[in-house]
Specification:
By secondary structure, the chain is an alpha/beta fold. It contains 11 helices and 25 strands. Helix 5 runs parallel beside helix 8 and helix 6 runs parallel beside helix 7.
């Protein structure tokens, strides 16, 4: 069933911390029923039956009287249990969604939980994007006739520690995310955006929310990952990855995650851009998002994510903007409505969903003329704790889409397909930055003929490499959001590191690099291929010039892949 949250406009309850105070329209509560496994319930158009022969007459009578229906959350129970990827310890067949009874979720929950064949039932608050907005961020520049190139504003793509070094990855086979598909799970997108349409595959499940704020949010997320490499707008961190969308509307968040994962191959990525109110404030919806948690807190969402990661699909999720320590003891207490076997998913000692949880870190001070604290320090709104794996930029993210429910603050105008923003914020902004890094690494692995990373390996690589989290006043690095990914530093952990050598036959001094985002390079032709030395010093550049000008150059080069790691000029 769905229980519609009362629609509100931006900041209806006043501004929250860090300039929050924006409520999304159309968020839906979900009533989830967990059946007893031994009852082996089977729900269909004519009601519910028990494959084990249990008496379900009381359950059917209740559903008829209340004009409700049980819908298997993850599809036909028989098909789910017979799936090759079925996990006896993660039984998806026991989860159901209640259809009907709008507005009476709490009342119906307690009554249906007491019926034979039912283990428990719980109400999930509406899931909303894990993003932040502030009127101070809004810098509207409407009416641009031709979209300029905003790439210089995308610091998150630059070399570490400022960014994830996407520019370096693009020079490597597969490093543009080639061969990788990413599905974004949330509410809505502008599928016709000028900078996205070529590689955006459309909506694979659910019905997009008909709301501009949701649409702007989804468009911003996809732009961070898949913006096209062209002469205008933005460039995605993994521009050759195929992107697609999955809406929770009409199916619920867990079913949307499951359906997305079922359409993907091992090594592909599901991105979950939602969070919802947690137990800190009794699951109350708040404009300031305090106490909001990643979706895996709820048993059906956890089961969907764990199913995805078990089949080799990476799941990356926003850690949430609740300003919460996920290590807090409050999360060790099992909610009365949850199944008895539930364990706190944020405790590393308990079974993990396998998802990569992403916190929000500050960009370098001075980005877009603003200072949000020391680079890579935890932003005050970001959830944190031992469960969080990595961080991305949580402010000043330049991407496609508008500002909240309005035209773009970087470029607006009458055409929604040409809107851009440079104030995308929250763990919603941080998570696609991490997805871009992972997609680039998966692409490089595939190009090298290696198996893609599974969940455990991806999380280990993110934790073992990257630019470390920094302290901020009142927010020490012990409040863990992890490191900012560094693609270049991660590659040696994933790919064989063989060093070759040879004598340079000719050279090319690239004073004005193309594409423009690449650094100045000195290129030497060695062992049948061009090898690159980025940002050569003037002295080294002159020495190579002089050697070749003499007519008998003796330039010895050591290289790894196409990168020069050593150079000696003799004679």
């Amino acid at each position: 069933m769905t229980d519609q949250v009362q629609p509100q406009g931006p900041g209806a309850s006043g501004p929250g911390p860090d300039g929050a105070g924006f409520t999304y329209r159309g968020a839906e509560r979900e009533l989830i029923v967990v059946a007893r496994p031994e009852a082996r319930l089977r729900a269909g158009a004519k009601g519910v039956r028990s494959a084990a022969g249990a008496d379900v007459s009381a359950l059917n009578m209740f559903l008829d009287d209340e004009q409700l229906a049980l819908e298997p959350l993850f599809g036909s129970e028989e098909r789910v249990q017979q799936s090759p990827s079925a996990d006896p310890e993660n039984d998806l067949a026991v989860f159901y969604r209640v259809r009907g009874g709008e507005g009476r979720a709490a009342e119906l929950r307690s009554r249906i939980a007491a019926l034979p064949g039912v283990d428990t039932a719980y109400v999930k608050p509406g899931a909303v994007p894990a993003t932040l907005h502030s009127e101070e961020d809004r810098r509207l520049k409407e009416g641009a006739a031709v979209t300029p190139d905003f790439g210089s504003r995308q610091g998150y793509l630059r070399p570490a520690p400022e960014g994830i070094d996407a520019h370096w990855a693009w020079q490597r086979p597969g490093g543009t995310g080639q061969g990788v598909t990413v599905i974004d799970v949330e509410g809505a997108w502008q599928l016709g955006h000028e900078d996205l349409a070529a590689r955006l595959a459309g909506v694979v499940v659910g019905t997009p929310v008909d709301d501009l704020a949701w649409r702007n949010h989804g468009t911003a997320v996809i732009g961070v990952i898949g913006g096209e490499r062209n002469q205008y707008g933005v460039q995605g961190a993994a521009p050759d990855a195929v992107t697609a969308a999955a809406s929770f509307q009409g199916v619920g968040t867990a079913a949307a995650i499951h359906a997305a994962a079922e359409r993907l191959a091992p090594g592909d990525i599901v991105l979950v851009e939602l969070h919802r109110p947690g137990p800190r404030f009794e699951y109350a919806e708040r404009d300031d998002q305090r106490g909001y948690l990643p979706l895996e807190w709820w048993p059906d969402d956890f089961a969907a994510v764990r199913h995805a990661t078990a089949k080799g699909v990476l799941v990356v999720a926003a850690a949430g903007n609740g300003a919460e320590s996920l290590d807090d003891a409050v999360y060790e207490r099992r909610p009365d409505e949850f199944p008895r076997g539930w364990r706190n998913p944020f405790n590393p000692s308990n079974p993990s969903s396998g998802a990569v949880l992403v916190g929000a870190g500050a960009p370098p001070p001075g980005t877009h003329g603003r200072d949000h604290g020391p680079d890579r320090s935890r932003l005050a709104f970001s959830n944190y704790g031992s469960r969080v794996d990595a961080q991305g930029w949580g402010h000043e993210v330049t991407t496609t889409g508008g500002f909240w429910d309005r035209p773009g603050d970087l470029q607006g105008g009458p055409e929604e397909i040409a809107w851009y923003t440079d104030t995308f914020s929250g763990t919603s902004a941080a998570a696609p930055v991490v997805v871009g890094a992972l997609a680039a690494l998966q692409g490089m692995l595939r190009a090298a003929g290696q198996a893609p990373m599974a969940a455990e390996r991806a999380r280990a690589v993110l934790r073992a490499s990257g630019s470390p989290q920094q302290d901020a006043p009142g927010r020490p690095a012990s409040q863990r959001i992890g490191s900012r990914p560094d693609i270049r530093a991660a590659v040696p952990q994933l790919l064989p590191h063989a060093v070759g050598s040879g004598r340079a036959e000719r050279y090319w001094d690239e004073l004005l690099p193309y594409p423009r985002e690449l650094p100045p390079r000195l290129r030497l032709y060695v062992a049948g291929a061009w090898r690159n030395l980025n940002r050569p010093s003037p002295e080294l550049r002159q020495a190579v010039h002089t050697a070749f000008a003499g007519g008998r150059p003796d330039v010895r080069v050591w290289f790894s892949d196409d990168e020069i790691v050593g150079l000696v000029i003799t004679g």
